[in-house]
Amino acid sequence: MQLGFSTWGMPAVPVDAIVRHLAGLGFDGVELTVLSHHTTALERLDKDERSRILKLLQDNNLQLPAIAGHVSLMDEDSASHAANLERLKKTMDVALEWASEDGPPVVDTTAGGKPEDWDSKLGMLVERIQEAAEYGEKTGVTIAIEPHVGSIIDTPDRMLEVIRQVGSRAVGVNFDISHFNVMGIGIEESVAAMAPHACHTHVKDERGTVPDFEFLVPGEGEFDYVTYLKAMQRHGYTGFITAEISNMVQRRTPYYPLAVATETYNTLAKAFDDAGIERN
């Protein structure tokens, strides 16, 4: 396994500063976020900038396991959904351009919607994921769907059912265990279900359970990273463990994203050591 950091928590930081800071700390890779309010927004990634960022990553020996391209797949308005799907496809095109010898980075997205939509709108969700998956199969880019507390896919069982019904090799899981932790689902239960389907991960810290919970910086909360890492290894996961800093943390005043990345690295690198797991 390897250790990464998502730029989700660094929307205003220039990509050059992000890459150099993460590489200097010792991270193995970075997930770049291409949402419109980020310095690496899809709208800013013309051909020259895409080439420059790829070289920047290569020069700093940082892998790119994933791109965070989150869109809603549950928009009721057909025009809005078409725009969301087109944006997701354009993100997949960027992933293809940023491919390494091991293949392109996966493209992460949440599904949107609400838990109570499950019975009435599962069919629509499956059809829409299949739409995106057709493009993924054509390009060779995997879409990593992220189960999320408060969304239509909010449990391991629901994620497994979506995978079963979609039935595409281009669809996997962006496994953010924190969303199951705050619902009171244990590490072993969620890892056993999700690790076989995970093509990328997120981790963060947390305190409490739904509805009274809070996402935190790794090291601030209750999560047992050592047990988690050992479980992921035991269930055969060999990819990136990527830290993500939640919007809850980003709303703090003051909030220092580079300092938070440093704190995160220290916590997770120690967890790898304590678990006896070599990063490779």
From TrEMBL:
Matches recorded under InterPro entries: IolE/XylAMocC-like (IPR050312), Xyl_isomerase-like_sf (IPR036237), Xyl_isomerase-like_TIM-brl (IPR013022)
Pfam families: AP_endonuc_2 (PF01261)
Record keywords, A-Z: Isomerase
A molecular function GO annotation: isomerase activity
Domain of life: Bacteria
Domain Xylose isomerase-like TIM barrel: residue ranges: 20-249
PANTHER family linked: HYDROXYPYRUVATE ISOMERASE (PTHR12110), XYLOSE ISOMERASE-LIKE TIM BARREL DOMAIN-CONTAINING PROTEIN (PTHR12110:SF21)
Protein name as it appears in the record: Sugar phosphate isomerase/epimerase
Species annotation: Caldilineaceae bacterium SB0664_bin_27
